[in-house]
Amino acid sequence: MNIHEYQSKAILKSYGVNVPEGYPAFSAEEAVENAKKLATPVVVVKAQIHAGGRGKAGGVKIAHSPEEAGAFAKELLGKTLVTKQTGPAGKVVNRLLIEAGSNIKKEYYLSFVLDRKTARVVMMGSEEGGMEIEKVAAEMPDKILKETIDPAIGLASFQATRMAYGLHLPQEAIRKATKLMGCLYNAFIGKDCSLAEINPLVLTEEGDVIALDAKLNFDDSALFRHPDIEELRDVTEEDPKELAAAKEGLNYVNLGGDVACMVNGAGLAMATVDIIKYYGGEPANFLDVGGDSTPEKIAAAFRIMLDGGQAKGIFVNIFGGINKCDLVAEGIVEAAKIISSDGKSLPVPVVVRLEGTNVERGREILKNTPIQNVIMAPTMEGGAETIVKLVKEAEQA
Questions:
Q1: Which of 193, 222, 229, 174 is nearest to 111 (CA)?
Q2: Alpha-carbon span 106 to 182, nearest angstrom
Q3: Exposure check for the chain: N or C terminus, fewer CB within 10 A?
Q4: What is the DSSP secondary-structure string of 318-380?
Q5: DSSP secondary structure letter of residue 52
Q6: 150-186: b or e for each residue (b if 16 or more CB lie within 10 Å)?
Q7: Backbone phi, then psi, for 98, in 5-degree steps?
């Protein structure tokens, strides 16, 4: 789960991280009032969307008066920002952060992330702040410093000090930086984050160390422990299909293509996406229906995949273990009854590959059903090749 910058900064501030004073705004009038409240010579007007690269896309403006802040707010609210992370469709700006300007001397990068190889939290830092960390890693890997943290001890003071000196912070800023690192680590652990990133972390001309930007991502599986975080969710920033799938207990990620996939098990789902690409198709989604697929759940999955007309074909790839192939087959029949006007056809071709528990019964159900557009595939490879071919033929027709 992601939250906005102003929400991240409020959380970090509660843990003692030094952040600029700022207030959210949902209208130009509110932006003017917030700028007056700050009473600083420079005010920064920041678009709030769940994507990086806002500055390059024109989503960050420098104002020198409350009236100018209001004019920028009017310009940004309702605007669609297109960045590298939003994709070509972009994201609409519905809220802003009105923040006091900072007298920047030097920019740095600082984050805490999970390293799956070591199963440890890692603190990462770089002198190349303000840049995309992926670009720094590719072009200047020696500029990225890492400290692997022992979970039994937590962030040790010597690790924070080593990082601060490694970033070549001036001597008078070392203690301020190490204190900020400790507070950021406490927030990361305390809120079950999967990422806590400050880019840039800045040293000001006055000698302060400030989190000028902030990004927090949270482990969805731990949100039950943090109802306060759950309340910060902005559903307008999330894919409607992914939200609908979550309510049905389905794991769904929109991939933007036109060949929809319905699979049980994350590993098989990823392999299915890969094999569709191998045969020249574009996967529409990652969809793991899990191991307890009832006919109702399968029908819900079909509704989500077909919503909006994105999918031009569906590949159902089931290896039944806990999942039973006959229940999946019944779900496909049920989906046709719900979705189609006549209860006997689906709007796009559906290729089904079934293996595992009750597979013969499942195949028999689909073989004897009056539903049109359902094609049985003996293998995963054959099924992927068939659905890609059918979708391409439909596009050319």
A1: 193
A2: 21
A3: C
A4: EEESSS-HHHHHHHHHHHHHHHSSSSSEEEEEEEEEEEETTHHHHHHHHHH---EEEEE-SSH
A5: S
A6: eeeeebeeebbebbbeebebeeebbebbbbbbbbbbb
A7: -105, 115
Instruction: Provide the annotated active-site residues.
Output: 109, 197
Contact 332, 366 (CB under 8 A): yes
On whether the CB atoms of residues 339 and 300 are closer than 8 A, the answer is no
Residue 35 buriedness (CB in 10 A; 0-12 / 13-18 / 19+): buried
In this prediction the pTM is 0.79
Per the structure block, which two tokens stand in for 229? 């975080």
- Element holding 114 (H helix, E strand): strand 104-115
* Nearest-angstrom CA–CA distance, 253 and 269: 11
The residue among 246, 137, 122, 230 whose CA lies nearest residue 185 is 122
User: Taking the chain, what is the end-to-end CA distance rounded to the nearest angstrom?
Assistant: 41
Sheet containing strand 43-47, edge to edge, reads: 22-25, 96-100, 43-47, 60-63
* Cβ-based burial of 82 (10 A; exposed 0-12, middle 13-18, buried ≥19): middle
Partners of 375 in the beta sheet? 351
Retrieve residue 252's tokens. 């769904």
Please name every residue paired with 283 in a beta bridge, in sequence order, or none if there are none: 259
Closest CA to 100 of 185, 188, 181, 202: 202
Full pLDDT tens readout for the chain, 397 residues = 899 999 999 999 999 999 999 999 999 999 999 999 999 999 999 999 998 888 888 999 999 999 999 999 999 999 999 988 887 888 999 999 999 999 999 999 999 999 988 999 999 999 988 777 888 888 888 889 999 999 999 999 999 999 999 999 999 999 999 999 999 999 999 999 999 999 999 999 999 999 999 999 999 889 999 999 999 998 888 878 888 888 888 888 989 899 999 998 888 999 999 999 999 999 999 988 876 667 778 888 888 998 888 899 999 998 877 678 888 888 888 878 777 766 667 888 999 998 888 888 988 888 887 777 888 898 999 999 999 999 998 887 6
| Residues sharing a CB contact under 8 Å with residue 95, sequence separation 6 or more, in sequence order | 4, 6, 24, 25, 26, 48
Cα atoms found within 13 Å of the Cα of residue 386, Cβ hemisphere only: 20
How far from 351 is each of 6, 194, 297, 375, 386, CA to CA, in Å? Answer: 46, 37, 18, 5, 7
